[in-house]
Amino acid sequence: MKLESERLILRPIEESDVPALFPLINDADVAADMLSVPHPYPEDEYVPWIRKAREAMERREQFPMAIVLKETGLPIGACDILNISWDHMRAEIAYWIGKEYWGRGYTTEAAKRMIEFGFEELGLERISAGCFPRNKASARIIEKLGFTFEGLARHAYKKDGEFLDELRFGILRSDSR
Question: What is this structure's pTM?
Fold first, then answer.
């Protein structure tokens, strides 16, 4: 499976992506604002995570995709449709990108293509997204993509020994047309 946008290719994450992706996800600034990614990221857990994610993709439980620059073929982050409920036709979207690629619109472009995939190819009715209130850049991306703010989940995550709130957003298939 391969999805394309103007500047990006989204394809399943592969073990061969580890040398490029691991240093990016293990950056303290990247990990700080990711809901469920620890820092430092345990190096011995990254390949097993990729394997589990690929198996989940085969079962259509989630769709973890590497964000790859068309121009260079280099993976620069990841975007995922996850926590899929086929009974309710809903899922979540999550994404991250290496710090050196921030501010160039890559995350918005990748997430937009994944949302299209979720609605058009998976037939989802609803996709939700979340971020920490301190992650202003992610909240802007989510809003640019047409999501509606739906509320604040207090103490939704425990990260580095601290309970953190989560901003919750949702978008419906009819919102994305």
Answer: 0.92
Q: Are 129 and 93 in contact (CB under 8 A)?
A: yes
Q: Is 82 exposed, middle or buried (0-12, 13-18, 19+ CB in 10 A)?
A: middle
Residues 47 and 45: their CA atoms lie apart, in Å, by 6
The per-residue pLDDT for range 12-37, each reduced to its tens digit, is: 999 899 889 888 888 878 877 776 77
Domains of the chain: 3-128 (3.40.630.30)
* Residue 110, number of CB atoms within 10 A of its CB: 28
Radius of gyration of the chain, Cα coordinates, nearest whole angstrom: 15
In sequence order, the β-bridge partners of residue 116 are none
Amino acid in the structure at residue 161: G
Residue type, 49: W
Tell me 41's DSSP state: P
- Amino acid 78 reads A
Q: Cβ distance 39 to 26 under 8 Å?
A: yes
